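Input sequence (291 aa), recorded before submission:
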Amino acid sequence: MKITTRLGREVEVNADYTIDQDWGHYSPAEHDRWDRLYARQRDVLQGRACDQFLHGLEALKLSNGGIPNFKDLSDRLMDRTGWQVVAVPDLVPDEVFFDHLANRRFPAGNFIRDEKHFDYIQEPDVFHDVFGHVPMLSDPVFADYMEAYGKGGLAAAGRGVLHNLARLYWYTVEFGLIKTAAGMRLYGAGIVSSPAESVFALEDLSPNRLHFDLERVMCTDYRIDDFQQTYFVINSFKELLDATYQPFGPVYDHIKARPKYAVATILDEDHVHHQGTQAYAMAQSAALKDA
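Predicted structure, token format:
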């Protein structure tokens, strides 16, 4: 079947929305762009990303030169955790996404941002998806969490709770922090693929850093247009996995009675690692009003 992507491209896709990566179609300039993105972000993440992410970068050989070939990458990933990477042209429908994760397939965009969007692109491209997400899939515990998340999504179909699941994904897989013996570190793909947010999430005084609580996270709004105003922190990936390896039916029933929390809210019962000043968000809001 054919779909039209958000970038206006018409693409032939399989029933599960996958496509052939067609590695040979990448130009020398696109491979060079990957190498420059990789080199910049690798340097930013030293001392900021968690060990599991950094080990995954090396183990999966994402710096072999140019955009990774998904077949070769999947072979290396399969040997470690049984996961593989499949190419998609755009974001896929929720049920398709959950099915891929539940079967240990990570759908990754096969296009790379153009030069004018070198620093930021809203659509998830191959750099965000592969550099940001795939290294963590080489960690056995996090790999199990992602599979459990996919199965939870499939089980939630028809319950009207996909927005709650989206918040869980956002605050863990995309923008999660972990507390380690060496200090707080990054693991979320949305942070580790962004040079500016890699610094902001750990070092800026503006955002809240609260300890992870499943129901709290599933009731909390998030930002898609700027740096996060709140990050949630785990002590270990086992903590995250254990929270997901429970029947979600009672969780969904319970959170129906809970209010939705604004992005910067701190509750009395929150375990607060750092109460942010929210200075950045307030400055951005003031600038918009003055524009």
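Checked by second reader. The chain has a mean pLDDT of 94.
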